[in-house]
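Appendix B, record 7
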Amino acid sequence: MNKLLIGVMCLATAGYIFAQEATPAEETVQNQCTIEERTVQDMIDEFLASKGWVAGENTKGGKKFFVATGTGVIQAPRSKPASYIGSRVNAYNKAMLEAKKNMVEFLGVAIATETARSYQEGDFSAPSAGQSAGEDPNSIVYKVKSLIHAKLDKALRAEGVDPDAANKEAAAKAAKNLLASEQYQKMVRTAAQAQVVGLQAICTFEGTPSSDKGEIGVVAIWSPKLQEMAASIITGAPVAKVAGKRPIREQVATDPGALLSTFGVQQKIDEAGDLVLVGFGQAGGVSESKMAAKGAQSKAKANAIAAIREFAGENVAVATDMLSAESVEEFENAAEEYQDQSAFSEKIKARADAMNISGIAVLQNWKYKHPLTGTTVYGCVCTWAPKYAESAKQIKNAMANPTATSSSKPAAAKKPVAKPTASAYEASGQAGDDDAF
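Structure tokens (predicted):
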């Protein structure tokens, strides 16, 4: 297997399927590795085989969970570094959309098919051009129609259009002495729609071969425990505690290179045994300026919190049309003409309406130069948990009623503020009082 000379990040992030069964094998693994010249589908298949999973329904400890996979192409060329970083994020979203499609179709899909075949030898006689069956060529109507056709033909020739092209084509075929023809077509239409709740990206892969476009691949998982967490976002209901793990901060890589190919949301367990959602987002800047960096960091945060919102539930609709069609014409001297007339169309749409979510906080921000383009990638890691949501609501209520907790002590007299001297402005911001929080 040939490895690229350029080392790129490949990330497999394995999260928890069932929080109540947090085994070491289910912990998040964040590594750096060299991208190899293979497809991300190969990487996905190897990962599933290593876990003993299949795409679809699986069982662990007597409990069922569902695995869905997807891939997305990084369409932007590497010669456009600023666009390439955004296209990587788009590729992940397309991969996740495909995974959602696969899950929705598992839940239920309407399928319609229609197949037809026709076979013909010879040619059935038909009225000549410009003359309907049984029409008298000496009639006034026929002569008027002929005059109109003649004027139209002249106008078409003036525009460079041959009005006799169809007749010439038919004559050419007739000259070849058509013996027989066959036409076949099959139309397959599918449609599916369902609410997808609690689907997380347990593992993401990035492949960037030297001679082709890159890809992002995802392995997504749904389980009853994940859905319970998603329901908590909507209802505010608490989720049962489990055995505690390490602090969340220690479970997320501090090396930004290890976060370069991490997308979506993962469920983890903190040291208190509480379930916590961790959203990963990233974005590129329009330039390398400080202003562009600030904008990119904000976009990265938006992507991270969007992943948490999508985890809470989306309405996913899928529609595909597939036409398999071909025609064959057989002539004398064993000559044949074959035409493939097949077509395919697929549309996937996932919609998450506005939802007020309290308690989302930034765990860390990061930046890293992409190995292929040298462009800075900005990332953001956000967290949410039921206990964070409850704290946020309490703070919000306190701010809405400030007099309810105000002190009766008189306000201290303000000290005079010294006027700044006319010198270079070099100063540190005033530090907060540690005893005030």
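Remarks on this record: The first helix runs from residue 40 to 51. The CA atoms of residues 279 and 306 lie 8 Å apart.
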